[in-house]
User: Fold this.
Amino acid sequence: MPPIVVALLLQVLGGALTVGTAYLLAIFGLTLPPLGAAFMTGVYAALGAKAARLDTWWMGIQLCFAPLVVLVSAASLPPWIWIALFAALVAVYWSTFRTQVPLYLSSKRVRQALVPLLPPGRFTFMDVGSGVGGVLTDLSAARGDGEYHGIESAPVPWLVSWLRFRVGAHPNCHAHFGSLWNQDLAPYDVVFAYLSPVPMAALWAKVRREMRPGTTFISNSFTVTAVAPDRIVPVDDLHQSQLFIWTQP
Ligand SMILES: C[S@@+](CC[C@H](N)C(=O)[O-])C[C@H]1O[C@@H](n2cnc3c(N)ncnc32)[C@H](O)[C@@H]1O
Assistant:
């Protein structure tokens, strides 16, 4: 079950436990104010997240969710704001529910560290899950002799990269809309990924199946357990990122 569904179910369970607790308190003549009830729901949901062994940061989200709903509801904002916000989030994080790969960007230093890893002469480069296209524009500025492709499944990031390549005049950058799982990796000399631990085993199998001998697969931050990387490049950025590099046999 995706963690977000577990988190949602825990919120419902937390709400039910809070209602039960409120009844018990009422027996002793005590009433629970809305914010107190929301906080109690958050505590139950956070404890549930720990018991369900969700990642630690889910506890913070679980704790704050219901109190924030109560606080924001008190602000009496017009209802269309919530629909608009929801639509915007869906457009940006379109596939995150299914893929468990959200949008976050490679740091400037990672993008700089990629430049010396590019092959000499003309080459083709593919960023699988290319976000808003920043990796591709930076590399094309540093190495104009490459042909850069990105595939992205979330509509808004894809649109931003598509516009960015046109407005910024990057004729050697190409934004493809779709799933990386339907993208053949055989035409590319370098494939770059910055995803999450979840798809790495399947991506590695795809890399092995499709990439040609002598070509390079680079993963920012997430490695695979199957085969140790041929090289690791540490990057001195905020996250102390690492680039894991495999040359295809
Ligand atoms: C962590 S971001 C990396 C963005 C960019 N590559 C970078 O390094 O700055 C991962 C991106 O992969 C996209 N993504 C996740 N699963 C995907 C899939 N199956 N096909 C295409 N894109 C996907 C997400 O929408 C997100 O924009």
Q: What stands out?
A: The mean pLDDT is 93.
